[in-house]
Amino acid sequence: MKRLSAADPETKSPDIVAGNIEQLKALFPEAFTEGKVDFDVLRQLLGGAVDEREEKYGLNWHGKRRARQLALTPSTGTLRPCPEDSVDWDTTGNLVIDGDNLEVLKLFQKSFAGKVKLIYIDPPYNTGKDFVYPDNFQDNIKNYLELTGQVDGNGNKICSNTEASGRFHTDWLNMMYPRLKLARNLLRDDGMIAVSIDDGEVGNLRRALDEVFGEEQFQAQVVVQSNKRGQTYKQIAKTHEFLVIYSKSEDLELNELEKAADALPFTDSSGPFDLWELRNRNPKFGRFNRPNLFFPIYVLSGSTDECGYSRVSLIPVNNASVKVLPLNSEGEEGCWRWGTDKIKGCDLNASSPVLVARKRRDGEWNVYEKSRKSTTKVKSIWSDTEFINEQGTIELGRLGMGDVFDHPKPVALLQRCIFMATGPDDVVMDFFAGSGTMGHATLAHNAADGGKRRYILVQLPEPLDPNEREQKTAADFCDQLGKPRNIAELTKERLRRAGKKLQDDNPLFRGDCGFRVFKLASSNIRTWEPNRENLPKTLEESVEHLKTDRTEQDILFELLLKLGLDLTVPIEVKKIAGKAVHSIGAGTLLVCLAPTITPDEVEPLAIGVVEWRKTLAAAGESTVVFRDSAFADDVAKTNLTAILQQHGLENVRSL
Fold it and tell me: Fewer C-beta neighbours within 10 Å, C or N terminus of the chain?
């Protein structure tokens, strides 16, 4: 039975560097010598794909190497469950995480890799104010706990980002870059990320996203009218922000909006339609590069359909046929949008054919497709009133929280993103959750279309100081709730109120309005931190491998995270030989954290675990975990392991 320690890969978030090396080794084994990469050999294998220039196009800044290293460094933290802060803990699939999003994104690399359909973030805009994100390369968990007032520390904001610091853009990029790198891993191949941003960093954001996702995955830089009156303190009143959208890969397919009722102005026996000219009007295409799409279509001028439009054919039928070529207004040779095979597949003799012709005022003919398409692509300018930030404040006001957040994003903005990118069973994520609009929008969209989307929100529990004018209202609101003064508490309260209001307004809605809360913390597994002045006490405390102030539930959920299971996976508990045994994911993980297991209890416990696993019919291999200090001696531990392995349970671990 292998004992899991704080140094084992199973107790950390994934080692991304090791994973990259293994992939490289699989592709180019000859580029490795004694376990190290031979870059000269690798260059030879890659040939002309290697850029040897000293000066290269790209985005560089002081600290980029360290920012990349931050994303690659595994986290030793965990997420502690908080049922008392949650809503519908036993049934919900939604997650709210109190914690530094960099560490949380690392911890999610096993459980949620490739599972998130949409990531939306509204990161701190670069306004010359301090950031509160503690990216400490050596011990980010300790730094985070000090910064958020959870352990003794100075409690000061450590990331100065004023223009006077000389690192105005650098600090912002150092904060964003590792988070974007980690976020990409969580997206599905057909996933999308959308980032709200203003003029200050939109250029740097685009270049950073180009590097992380690839220039070819850029989809749009949407202009969102966020303020109708405009910010009037400059020469031009700025009324907009941006929504920068990238895809994970070419697999992204966005949903389209319904057209207006009058968008299909004509009607025949098959229903409403519009007329779309069959000639390709794009000047980039013509006979010169699409010769197969340049051919004649004949108008049968004496034959009409039920609407009076002339019928067409690929061959002349009689002397009355009129030959039509795809020529532009200047008589230059263009091309059709359809090829001959597609036209032959249509019934041109139907009472209401797909292709028809109509004479122009100048006497020439145009060929048209009867388009019945009722949807249209989302445009790149969003100017509807429902998208302005003031609407977000109004929505919070309806929840009794109108003055708690400055410029919250409106629900409609995020619902548009959810509509575009997701289906009814997808997972969405926001790791700068702020006012919690993403969670609210997910609930609202599920109520509108009957979907079962899940949300994952991450928010730093940034302390609120009632002595600071901008934070006083929010701090006082936390006091009224009897909650700690931090932003994450406001996020959760907004979600509680939004879920209740949604259920009150839609009594027939039976969707998930709950959420499970977890808080970032140091691992439940002790690390070796000797007290040089009292080594005997250190040795005595290290006998117990797990921290004594942690619960069974804490340990269970750390196992879920580190073994790559969803934090909302079902957990069953059964008494076997007087011990509580937990089955997670229908037997994928079996855990017994009883403090003592005597030699007499070993066999009935092991046999009971084997029999329960059979009834669970677990798919694939199961992992079985016990508390290491529970066994009286190594003989008891060995006997239990042997019984389990005799019955096919090979993967047995202890904590």
Answer: N
| 152: pLDDT strictly greater than 70 | no
φ and ψ of 344, to 5 deg: -65, -25
In sequence order, the β-bridge partners of residue 312 are 299
CA distance 277 to 275: 6
**Judgement on whether residues 6 and 51 belong to the same structural domain of the protein:** yes
Q: Quick check: 334 and 287 in contact, CB under 8 A?
A: yes
Q: What does the DSSP assignment read for 195-239?
A: EEE-TTTHHHHHHHHHHHH-GGGEEEEEEEE--SS-BTTSSS-B-
- Is residue 481 domain-resident? yes
DSSP string of 122-183, one letter each residue: -PPP-SSSPB-----SS-HHHHHHHHTTSSSS-----B---GGGT-HHHHHHHHHHHHHHHH
> In terms of residue numbers, what domain contains 123?
87-256+378-521
Query: Does residue 91 sit in the same domain as residue 227?
Result: yes
Strand partners for 258: 375
User: Does 65 fall in a domain?
Assistant: no
On whether both 399 and 503 belong to a single domain, the answer is yes
| Mean pLDDT value across the chain | 88
**pTM of the complete model:** 0.85
Question: pLDDT higher for 30 or 252?
Answer: 252
Task: Look up residue 478 and give its two tokens.
Answer: 């936390």
- Segment 483-493 shows an average pLDDT of 96
pLDDT tens digits, 239-264: 999 999 999 999 999 999 999 888 89
How buried is residue 97: exposed, middle or buried, by Cβ count under 10 Å (0-12/13-18/19+)?
A: buried
Average pLDDT of the residues in 645-649: 93
Listing DSSP states for 267-312 in one string gives EETTEEEEEEESB---TT-STTT-GGG---EEEEEEEE-TTSPEEE
